[in-house]
## 1
Amino acid sequence: MTELLEKPYPPADDDCCGGGACCPCVWDNYYAELQKWRVQQAEIKQQVDS
C-alpha cells in the first residue's frame, strides 16, 4: 500500500525572500508537493468510482 500524502500547506509569507535567486524556491517545493498530492487524490477517487 502506498503512503497517503498529507495536503501541503503553502509557505508562510516570511518563508520566501522574494528575491528570485533561490533555487529551488520554497514555492517551487510547495507546488511540486501539491501536484503529487493532487495526483494521488485523483488516483484514489478513480479507484473509489470504479
Note: The radius of gyration is 14 Å.
## 2
Amino acid sequence: MENQAHISEIYDLAVIGGGINGTGIAAEATSRGLSTYLCERDDLANHTSSASSKLIHGGLRYLEHGEWRLVREALSERETLMRKAPHLVRSQRFILPHRPHLRSAWLIRLGLFLYDHLGKRQRLAPSSHLRFDGQGPLQADITQGFEYSDCTVDDSRLVILNAMAAREQGAHIHPRTHCLSAHRSRGLWHLHLERTDGSRYSVRASALVNAAGPWAMEVITDRLGQDSRHSLRLVQGSHLIVPRLHEGQQAYILQHEDRRIVFAIPYQGDFTLIGTTDRDYRQDPADVHISDDEIDYLLGISNSYFKRQLQREDILHSFSGVRPLLADDQGPAANVTRDYHLQLDTDAQGHAPLLSVFGGKLTTYRMLAINTLESLRPWYTGLPESDSASTPLPGGDLSDPRALVEEMLDRYAWLPRCLATRWAWSYGSRAWRLLEGSHDLAGLGEHLGNGLYTREVEYLIEQEWAMTAEDILWRRSKLGLHSPALQANLHGYLRQRMDHRQLMPASK
C-alpha cells in the first residue's frame, strides 16, 4: 500500500482506544447492530487496563466517600460479569484485619452490611466477623477481623474478550493503528490513521467515541482540535508481585495510617499481588514506572500486617498504570471519584457527535458502554435496547470451568491437568479449539516452556491480535512470571516464524 491516505467505508461509530472502555463500547455497539470501527495505537489493553488490581468489586472504601450509586452499580455488575465470563471472573474471600485506631468495628460492620445489601448478591457469601488465635499469617497482635466477598479477574483478557465479541458481531478492530487526526465534514467524522508499517488510510463515521484513557485530553486538543469542558487528573497506581505470603486462598485488605487500603491477593498460584498506590502523575502515561517511595509504601504496609517480612530482594515483578480520573477534586488522589463522566459535543448543525470518556473503573465498563450508546441514541434510528447482560463473552458459555477441566481430561487423557486448568480458566469453552485434531502432546506443537505450546501461540496470533512475546506472556497470559527461559524461547519462535513468512513466495 502506498504511504498515503485514501477514503474507505462509512461506519456508524468509530472508537479511539483499545482498553476496557473502548472495547466494551465496541462490543455494546455491535450487539445493537451498529457498524463499528476501533483503533488502538498500541496493543489492546497495553496500558491502564492491564495494570489494575485484577478485581471485579463494588469498592468497599467508596462507601466512606458517599458514592452510593457507584457502589450499587458496581455490585450489580459484579454479578453480571460472573455470568458473562465465569472463566475469568472468580469469587474471592477478603479478610480485613481490624486495627481499632484506624476504623471502629461498628463502622466496618455497617459498611459490610451495606456492601452485602446494596446490590443483588446472589452468588457470593455474606460478610462475617472473625477472631484470630495468633497462629495464622497475620501479626500476633491482630486478634479480630472481618471477611467479605468480591471477585478477581484477568483484566487484560477481559479487554481481549470484549474485542473478540465486537469482532464476531462485525466490528473492525485495529490495534497498532494510530489516529493521527480527525475532523468533521458534511456531518461525518473523517479519521486519518497510520499503521506501524507507516501505511496510512482514512475512515468515516457518523459518530466518534474518544476512549483513549490517559490520552483522552490529548485526543481532544491535539488530534481533534477541540476544546473540552472537563479535564483529567492522572493518578498513578503501582503493584508488587512477591512470593506467596500465606497458605490458603483468602486475600487481605489492609488499612493504612493514611486511611487508604492496600490489597494482598493470591496471584497465579505461586505469588501474592500487593497494591495499589495513589499519587498524581504528570509525565508520559506510556512511561510510568513504580517509584522507590511506592515500593517502600507497599512493603511497609505488608510488613505491618504479616509475620513474613518482605525485603526489596523479594520483589519478583512490579507494574504501574495511570488512571484517567475526572478532575473534580483538588484533595488527595485517593479521594478522587472512580465514577465516569461522558462529555457529548456536536457540530453547529447537531451532527457528527463526539463523546469523550472521563474516568471509570474496570467493574463498571459495561454500564459505561450502555450509557454511551444511550447518549448517542438520538443519532441512531431504531437503536434496540441492550441485551449484553445476558450474552456470554467468548468462551463464557459454560457453567463451571472446573467441570470443563474434568471433561477435557476425560476426552484427552494425555493432557496435563495443569495445562487443562490454565486453558479452562483462560479460554473457557474456546479451549476446545486448542485441542482440535490433536491426539497427543506432540499435536500441540513445540513446547516452549511452562506449558506454552506453539498451537496456543498460533491461536493467540490468529484469534487475539497477539504479535510480540510481551503480548503473549503478559497480556494474553501471565506466563512471563514463571520462567525467564520461556521468553527467550518464544522470542526465537516468533523470529523464526517471521523469517519463514518473509521467505514465502507472494500469493498470486
Note: The first strand starts at residue 7 and ends at 16.
